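User: Hi! Is it possible to get a structure for several chains at once, not just one? Here's what I have:
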Amino acid sequence: MAKTDHAEHLAMPQDDRRRTSVVDTPAFAEHGPLVDHKVPQAEVVQQEPDLAWSRIRHYLREPFSEFFGVFILILFGDGVVAQVVLSNGEKGDYQSISWGWGLGVMLGVYSSGISGAHLNPAVTLANCIFRKFPWRKFPGYMLAQVLGAMAASAIVYANYKSAIDLFEGGPGIRTVGLETSTAGIFCTYPAPFMTKTGQFFSEFIASTLLMFLIYALKDDGNIGAGPLTPLCLFFVIFGIGACFGWETGYAINLARDFGPRLVSYMIGYGHEVWSAGGYYFWVPMVSPFCGCVFGGWLYDTFLFTGESPINTPYMGLQRLVQPKRSVWSNTYGDNKV
Amino acid sequence: MAKTDHAEHLAMPQDDRRRTSVVDTPAFAEHGPLVDHKVPQAEVVQQEPDLAWSRIRHYLREPFSEFFGVFILILFGDGVVAQVVLSNGEKGDYQSISWGWGLGVMLGVYSSGISGAHLNPAVTLANCIFRKFPWRKFPGYMLAQVLGAMAASAIVYANYKSAIDLFEGGPGIRTVGLETSTAGIFCTYPAPFMTKTGQFFSEFIASTLLMFLIYALKDDGNIGAGPLTPLCLFFVIFGIGACFGWETGYAINLARDFGPRLVSYMIGYGHEVWSAGGYYFWVPMVSPFCGCVFGGWLYDTFLFTGESPINTPYMGLQRLVQPKRSVWSNTYGDNKV
Amino acid sequence: MAKTDHAEHLAMPQDDRRRTSVVDTPAFAEHGPLVDHKVPQAEVVQQEPDLAWSRIRHYLREPFSEFFGVFILILFGDGVVAQVVLSNGEKGDYQSISWGWGLGVMLGVYSSGISGAHLNPAVTLANCIFRKFPWRKFPGYMLAQVLGAMAASAIVYANYKSAIDLFEGGPGIRTVGLETSTAGIFCTYPAPFMTKTGQFFSEFIASTLLMFLIYALKDDGNIGAGPLTPLCLFFVIFGIGACFGWETGYAINLARDFGPRLVSYMIGYGHEVWSAGGYYFWVPMVSPFCGCVFGGWLYDTFLFTGESPINTPYMGLQRLVQPKRSVWSNTYGDNKV
Amino acid sequence: MAKTDHAEHLAMPQDDRRRTSVVDTPAFAEHGPLVDHKVPQAEVVQQEPDLAWSRIRHYLREPFSEFFGVFILILFGDGVVAQVVLSNGEKGDYQSISWGWGLGVMLGVYSSGISGAHLNPAVTLANCIFRKFPWRKFPGYMLAQVLGAMAASAIVYANYKSAIDLFEGGPGIRTVGLETSTAGIFCTYPAPFMTKTGQFFSEFIASTLLMFLIYALKDDGNIGAGPLTPLCLFFVIFGIGACFGWETGYAINLARDFGPRLVSYMIGYGHEVWSAGGYYFWVPMVSPFCGCVFGGWLYDTFLFTGESPINTPYMGLQRLVQPKRSVWSNTYGDNKV
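Assistant: Yes, the chains can be modeled jointly so their relative placement is included. Here is the combined structure:
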């Protein structure tokens, strides 16, 4: 009908203008809407002068985005621990650390909307399973996240080098686990009384909470945080740090923990970065994946009414048995399972 | 008129899109609008494949929602107390506790929009009295809230078991009211100088404040917090904790106090969980109901101009004398008294 | 033109729906828009059953609103000082006090949108001068504000009576200015090293800042905080407390200081509540009026482009020379000077 | 086409109304949109009575706006340091200082939307380079920013004069770098262990972070903070203070550091305000410019897809080789390079 066409014609640009000008945060949705959002971005690039760098960047825009998101996160996160530890608590306390990590995530999310602001391989994994995020992107995201964390922790080290020398007792002294050790600036080490099970369980709960709450905040069928999502993530991370942050240091993120740990090993903190806490290093690499998947499953099973494998016959497992191109790619074909 | 039809046709989908995509929080309203909001949800479920679990979940969606809301609340709330107490204040202080409970409520609200995010039997009661929330739902809500609190406190216990053993002085030692006691992690115990009247009064004031402010934040005839409501509730809870939290620990919630108290009794903290503070345990069970009803009455009497028994002849008491189906149910019949 | 009519027809209900449903805070504007906002409220009351109480309340709705706004403010504000002082800093510190007053103002504003949320006679005065708030309302507002503060401080006293007895050293002992004194819970006393000029100046700066920032936050020609205004006021009050709160305790409000001071005198704190600090009590009664008027003048002179006496020939002083009814009333007549 | 005209006709006033009434913050954009935004402001002034002051103010509105923005910033920022230092940490701690500077920036931004809320000459420079802010405005902005900082620090000094006398040990004693020195209230001095390279690097990182995050928050192609931008800047400044604030005091702003330093020299703190820290004073004058330009370059190169020299052939350098009027002015001519 002509009237309908007219209505659509009227409605479209208005909707478009509202979306970009007011408070919509389309980029934070990892599923359908994100894909739609990227199409106009691609068009923008085509309208730009045909520069070599623009083309390269367009191809790498998602890894760049994840890189800088994690970069910002670790810059604030490792930075605040460095300041608190090295100043002997004069320029901050445990509260500051909760602030630093919380706002690191918040501002990292604001920096990486182009890629959906995962900032965490475990979140990417859960999105692959529950939100149809293309599996083929998983390795690239994870690599970018780890590299971003490594770059940021190296910069934190460079910035606080003199203070670390002073704190450790001399240039080049780098130790783990002593009173004057500074390895804890970069990655997490568990409290001494923890068993291996307790370590795993603590990281598991924190990761479950993280993923459950991310899905709650982004669910329009629930209240939904909308444009307040990054601010709410500040509270989520602050809360996890204040409530479950003591025993294992709430890594809840392979990139956040493994990347800086590798850097601290390269800097010269020695083999203890791996062996400390009874070879604790693998716990924050494995447990967040389990926790985030469980948290996503919990939310989708009990509260989510949108499109999810949980709300699909046979839990959508035939998606794995009969993989279509759409499982791997969001570029061609239909996005329905 | 054709023009009017045209206008409606144009207006409707636009309105619809705005409602879901921007910042509306329909689910947080416990009265009329919530009902409207649920109808489309039911339709969504019908469009989904006809799975057994989807049908069960649809029937239980409100108890599930309250369960997880309180679950998140207690996970953060009891978790932060555990971390502060067990680390001897090294990993947090009283400020952290205010943060933890505040953000626990905020994130619990975000998780339980489907059921209206009461998280507290006393809030449910006040909504039944002042906002036409169906009375028949009261028992189910209360049960779900208590069970959510029990589940969360059990998980907090499991997570901090080693640290509790260390703090109490050995595995299996669980005490109430000593220097090394950990019962205060789970539920509230009054300050020693409080009389029974003082205990009741302190909880009463805090509950009154809570309900008064919830109704203020949700009143569109006032400023109204709209999509900022969960964030504002963070400030409400933070404030109650900072200003009226010392004397009785601001339970202001039967589910938050009785559920974890029962769990701590089951764990083995002994009969003292009931007898401590002069059998204090019943105060946070009774006083919040009185306070919340009074707070709701105060707001409706002096400031609320919307639909309320206060603004109804004979204070709407004929609703109790001549109960219609609508008093008990929001599914059939008209919703007018 | 028919097309224009059509457009208006289309536009009007949409605009209306957006205004009420999304994030508009009309009630927080003390000038023109507030008046428009109240007209529909009056209509709502007429549609309600014709109850005696509804009629009384409609007449007193603005004083009630200011009463409860200040009531909430002082309940949190005096409450947090009581908790911090009486628990010897165990249940809070100076940070908590900044939080308590900040969120007290924020939640008080949310409670008193019906009257424009002044919460402070000096703000009411500045609005009379710069924003055409009707002068005839000034006495009623001020009275309601003082009464609200008195009621709240009495409740704080009742709640913390046992703890005050304990802190002062015995029941009935109430002192000012000693180590164990508790008069500072209720109203402000200056630091001992302050001269009278310094006291006045400190209150003056803080009040100037307050009014300047209120006008900045509410100026649509500037960025404008819109629905975030109450939250921003939290930051304003927090900031004044953290930056200019030490020397005189940042009363910046006759109602906040004089009301509770009177209550503390009635309770039995003795003549010292007036004589302490060299009869300091009049400074927070006078200085905020000077500061707020100066702050409003500063903003309007240098930044405000809207309707203000500053932007009017002869600074609008003929308004005082030739008073029209509109100067005193917002009910009848035109609102133009 | 007539239909398109109709659509535009319909769309325009709606869009206009939404822009002003809801949550748009056009004034915070330093490029194109800001210019559009000012045109109606100019029209408003013309509709006002033709007052001499209105004309003068209209001409100086941008310097006034920057002046008051920095004025608010330094009032809170220097004020909080004064309160914490002079009260020996009784009325605040390092956390308070992070709060004070963070909310100083936030409220300063709200006060200075008319000029784009730069508050920092380095931000102005980056906007000139990357966002086509007219170069001719740079000197005026910088002057206004420095004068605003000077005025505010003089007021902080006046307010805390008695307390400074007490702290330094007598009236007129003003020292730098001792235990009882108060020069650190006004401007930053580096930690003693820092090398000159370390000082520069620390300021450089902090400034890079600042500019990178400002551009991220304001990029609609990213998530974009929209009306939450001032609140997010609170978190940015809080984070820089908590994570990179120890070593050099995070000046990251020539106006914030040089202005108050000059005032403290004029007050009588002596030549040490320049010579302290190995003539440190030039570092926070130079390093923020380098850091902010690098931060802007980083964001535009890797993440920004909008109009930027980075996305222009030859990086837009022909703009410098063949300067058009538009490079210097936003009043006449086209704004395209």
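The CA atoms of residues 97 and 136 of chain A lie 35 Å apart. The domain at 62-328 of chain A is CATH 1.20.1080.10 (Glycerol uptake facilitator protein).

User: Great, thank you!
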